[in-house]
Amino acid sequence: MGKESEASERKLKKFLGLLKVNPMIPAVREPGVDLERALAGDHAAIFVLGGDVFEVLRMVKRKYRRPSIFINVDTVGGIAADASGIKFLAEEVDGIITTHRNVVEAARGTGVVTVQRLFAIDSSALGRGMRLVKSADPDCIEILPAVAYPEVAAEYGGQLEKPVLAGGLVRDFKTASRIVEAGAVGISTSERILWKLA
Known about the structure:
- The protein has 198 residues and is an alpha/beta fold.
- It has one domain: TIM Barrel (Alpha-Beta Barrel), CATH 3.20.20.70.
- 42% of the residues lie in helices and 19% in strands.
- It is built from eight helices and eight strands; from the N terminus they run H-E-H-E-H-E-H-E-H-E-H-E-H-E-H-E.
- The protein has helices at residues 3-21, 33-39, 53-61, 83-92, 101-107, 123-136, 149-156, 173-181, and strands at 24-28, 45-48, 68-72, 95-98, 113-119, 140-144, 164-167, 186-189.
- Helix 7 links the parallel strand 6 and strand 7.
- Helix 5 (101-107) runs parallel beside helix 6.
- The model has no long low-confidence stretch (mean pLDDT 92).
């Protein structure tokens, strides 16, 4: 195992361990008040889903102690989701989020934790997504929307060999609890009131 692989393994272990304490992952759409608030919190990670990557990095670097930062390379501007862009991000953040198999493959061995998003739109999309995830081999899978996760877990639980996160459309504690009880290791949400669910 190379130095970068060991680094991603270490980051993944830390991330999963912290999710056991607080499974809620703040999802922020751009740098600003929400990112500042999330950076001050005690979370396993922050999922940055939009904005300019360099503005995000400027804000993050001001914090001595902060949660891990995961960048959605499909939606954050300022950097390409290619080998060079991933290599740059690997020096700056802890993880990347993407829907694309080739991005997960490019990130393998760079030292970042990889999260591959899978949209639970219908059965055929899920079947296709499961095949893509299997071939890409990310560190974690994120099912969207999160409210579909309990059904996905019931139907495809045996095929979900990686730790599974859930994201989107979670607005209350009852829904969040149901998703965690169904087996999700974490939930990404932009609902600030839920960021403290333990």
